[in-house]
Amino acid sequence: MATELHETIFMAKQGRHKNLFLNYKNLNIFPVELLKDEGLQFLERLYMKRNSLTTLPDNLAQKLPNLIELYLHSNNIIIIPEAIGNLARLQSLDLSNNALQMLCPEIGRLRSLRHLRLSNNQLKCLPPEIGDLQDLETLDLAMNQLMSLPDRLHRCHSLQNLTVDHNLLSHVPRQLCWLHRLNQLSMAANRLTFLPLDLGRSRELQFVFVDNNVDLKGLPSYLYNKVIGCSGCGVSSQALEEGMSVALTEALVGLPAEVKLIGSQTDNVVPLEELAMRTMHRIYHHRPAGLNLLPSIILPKSLLDLLQFPLGHCHRCSQAMFTIIYPKLFPLRDTALAGVHRRTTVSFVAYCCSSRCLQTFDLQG
């Protein structure tokens, strides 16, 4: 095997190959032959799947500066060195099926990265710097131990496909709704109790899978007419039989802490605090050119975050909402999608900004 390995690497150096296949070679350590001399400067794709590697060399970027794709699926890698951030041209990195327990912040320096696969590891958290990957299109985090996602993930402006199935997520940040190129979001088999109010507001998002989140009772009405997977979710059959108000109460379990009030059709006056927040939001986001305002730094960070990323937008008129919602329940079994989702008691929930919008909202109109 060693002779065959040496010959494979030698031929790659001599022929200035762009692709090198070292899959299934029973490698315990990274071959030193790959890092000798300058013979692999032309290498662009390195395949090292199904070996027994535990780490990567610190000088990988120095010796393989033109690497575009690196496939390390099914090894025993525990840690990735900080020097991984020096692979300036890397576009695809596959570290799925390893033993990673953490991801170094330097991963955020891979500014050319488009595809990152980290499924089936032991990750419990992600570094905020992952939000610096503005060219990232695919992020696969399935089968880890993640309890949350970084708020800065919304900075991955190019993200199209996000998979976080089989983790420990109880919620996802509302900033996720600002990923305007996101086309597919899969969060099956987590511990979700609630979804962001604006999820599905983006027209680009077409596929959402939240199957087997047993405590998830309701879906934002923006997801109506999307391709959704929601088997194993929903309110109890008893709640539906007892009436809409009971079912709505159950569907609203897990509301974000920012929600201070839940309005109804009879509440004709929007609270003053909410009106003040809406006014501030308009001033900060739609102020005329040349209008001088006090520096935003005088506002508390929590308030700035809420102004930048509202709780949600009215499903009827798109008014930003901050402290109060007016919800309306639409059991899926009563919609045209009932025939597609026969085994679920999940409901759509419309979140409106006032009693007027609540009264006039129509799920199918």
Automatic annotation (TrEMBL):
SMART domains: LRR_BAC (SM00364), LRR_TYP (SM00369)
Gene: LRRC28
Domain Disease resistance R13L4/SHOC-2-like LRR: 105-190
InterPro entries in UniProt: Leu-rich_rpt, Leu-rich_rpt_typical-subtyp, LRR_dom_sf, LRR_domain-containing, LRR_R13L4/SHOC2-like
PANTHER family: LEUCINE-RICH REPEAT-CONTAINING PROTEIN 28, PTHR48051
Keywords on record: Leucine-rich repeat, Repeat
Name under which the protein is recorded: Leucine-rich repeat-containing protein 28
Taxonomic source organism: Characodon lateralis
KW Repeat (keyword) present: yes
Domain of life: Eukaryota
Pfam families, per database record: LRR_14, LRR_8
UniProt KW Repeat keyword: yes
